[in-house]
Amino acid sequence: MGDSQTWTAAPGAAERARSVLASAWSCAVTANGGREELVGAHEVAEDGRIYLDVPDDGALLAAALCAPRGEPSAVLEFADVAPVPVRQRIRARLWLAGWCAVTDGRLVFRATRVVLHQPTGAEVVDLGEFSTASPDPLATAESGLLTHLADAHPDAVERLTRLVEPDSLHGVVRVQPLAVDRHGLTLRIERSRAHGDVRLPFHAPADTVAQLTERMRVLLVQANAAACTRPALQRQRTDRDG
Q1: Count of domains for the chain
Q2: Which pLDDT score, from 0 to 100, does residue 229 have?
Q3: The domain that contains 116 carries what CATH number?
């Protein structure tokens, strides 16, 4: 689907990777030929090291102790899942290969390779950029912000479609907020058998929730002033629901 609204400022790969780490609650670990799921067991340091709380008899601890020198001891996989129900909810996957070591009673993972998989393709993240990047300032609040927008303000989401090019709304059956970062809001445009994403940029970055509220207000003012109305969108929804 070619929803090609112009994409302006957006997080780079390193910032996006760090945002996935900051907001993810679980991860999958592959080590010593085995795979296990960890839930609520990781913490990320400022330099990108990952501290893991793992069981004493787990594969990851064994990998840290037994891996041959010069070989990665584990691969960690994190999934970035959209908090609002949409088609294909996984927005990105983050894979990190690297070394584990026991430090001060905790297992510490340091990546030697970082790969970010997004719908646009896979990108190897520069390790220097990864270690110095910070997550998006809205990353940990994003889930609550998007679910509130979708559940409490569907009328606002509807109005925001006035900022979307009309061709991208042909045959649409549903529009949902997919993602938000300091640079803009992304909408998921769903049709009967296809979907695509459109980004609505903010006029200035939003580094706090208060600033985000102001940026969203500006977008809604722009939407209200837009010449393009959405009767076709409402008719499509009426046909589907009726």
Answers
A1: 2
A2: 54
A3: 2.30.110.10
User: Of the residues 96, 114, 132, which one is the last residue of a structural domain?
Assistant: 132
State pLDDT tens for residues 105-126: 679 999 999 999 998 899 999 9
Higher pLDDT, 5 or 128: 128
Once rounded to an integer, what is the mean pLDDT over residues 204-228?
Answer: 92
Question: Tell me, what's the pLDDT at 242?
Answer: 44
- Same domain? For 168 and 101 the reply is no
- Cα(171)–Cα(58) distance, rounded to whole angstroms? 50
Comparing 69 with 137, the larger pLDDT belongs to 137
Mean pLDDT, the chain, whole residue set: 87
| Residue (of 80, 72, 74) closest to 21 by Cα position | 80
- Please give, one letter per residue, the 3-state secondary structure of the chain: CCCCCCCCCCCCHHHHHHHHHHHCCEEEEEECCEEEEEECCEEECCCCCEEECCCCCCHHHHHHHHCCCCCCCEEEEEEEECCCCCCCCEEEEEEEEEEEEEECCEEEEEEEEEEEEECCEEEEECHHHHHHCCCCCCHHHHHHHHHHHHHHCHHHHHHHHHHCCHHHHCCEEEEEEEEEECCEEEEEEEECCCEEEEEEECCCCCCCHHHHHHHHHHHHHHHHHCCCCCHHHHHHHHHHHC
143 located within any domain: yes
Rounded Cα–Cα distance for residues 174 and 189 (Å): 6
| Residue that the structure tokens 């459109």 belong to | 198
